[in-house]
Amino acid sequence: MTVIRVDSAAGRLRFDGMDMACTLGRSGVCAADRKQEGDGCTPAGSWPVRGVLLRPGRVEANGIGLPWRWVREGDGWSDDPADPAYNRPVHLPRAFSAESLLRDDDAYDVIVVLGHNDAPPVPGRGSAIFFHLSEGRPTAGCIAVDKHDMLKLLPMLAPGDIMEIA
Prior knowledge:
Blueprint: E1 3-7, E2 12-15, E3 18-21, E4 29-31, E5 42-54, E6 68-70, E7 75-78, E8 89-91, E9 98-100, E10 110-114, E11 130-133, E12 143-145, H1 147-153, E13 162-165
Active site: 132, 142
InterPro entries: LD_TPept_cat_dom
Pfam families: YkuD
């Protein structure tokens, strides 16, 4: 197990000798037990790295050691606390609110799914906390890095790794 360390005060992500700038939630970092859906806060804590979602035609799937798959049309992630599938992948459209994983920007060309609030999900305690590509602005609660840095880091990740946000 390797730890990806996020120093929120410095805006830095460190992993296996690498040190890179990262972007966090627009509302900063909060204690995980205070995280609420839509608050723009990145939850502090240690979160397992679950797997990777990749956008076809935007990145290559070279050397990835984590479970991964291509994002497909209709892929979404439930962000509606009333949804029985809250904080889970879903197919769009659906009756409940969900975020599309095929965005107009490049942020979700690479999505590393983190195990925040997923075992089991507690409705309203935050959904879709991902490690993804930076768009040069704060996230909605995720952790983001430049594409170049992500592509360097991605093949180094392995099952059992965790992201520690402090």
